Amino acid sequence: MTKCDIVCNNMIVGRLVSHGKEEIVVATIEALRGLVERGSRDNPHLMGRLEKAAFIVLLRPIESLGESTYRVASEDALKSYIVQNGQCECPDYVRHGNGHFCKHRLAVGMLVRLNGRKPLKGGAPV
Description:
The protein is α+β, with helices and mostly antiparallel strands. The protein has one domain (4-114). 36% of the residues lie in helices and 30% in strands. The protein is built from four helices and seven strands, in the order βββααββββαα. The strands form two sheets. Strands 4-5-6-7 form a four-stranded antiparallel β-sheet, covered by helices on one side.
C-alpha cells in the first residue's frame, strides 16, 4: 500500500506493500509535479484527472495485489477500486470504456514511474 507518510524538504516518503513485503518509496514533489505537467502538456484533456491522480498518490493507499493488479483508494477514501491489466472497475472507467484514463489508472502509472519502474503496458501517459 502506498500512502505518503511524510512530506518535508520537498520529499515524499511512503510505503509500497506487495505480497506482505514493504518497500520504501522516496520521490520528490518536483518529480510528481513533473509527471503531472508532462502528462498535461501532452494530453491537455487529462489535466484535471492527472491532478486528482497526484492527490491520490500523495494521500491515499495504493496496494499492489500482484502482477499488474492494484487496489487504489478513491479520492474521498470511502471506497477502493481494483486496477488490473490497465483496466479499472470505477464508474468513470466503466462509463467511458476500455482504454479510458481514469484517475485511478493514472495514479498507478504515476506510482510506477516514481518508483523508477518502466510504465505498465497500456498504462498511464505520464
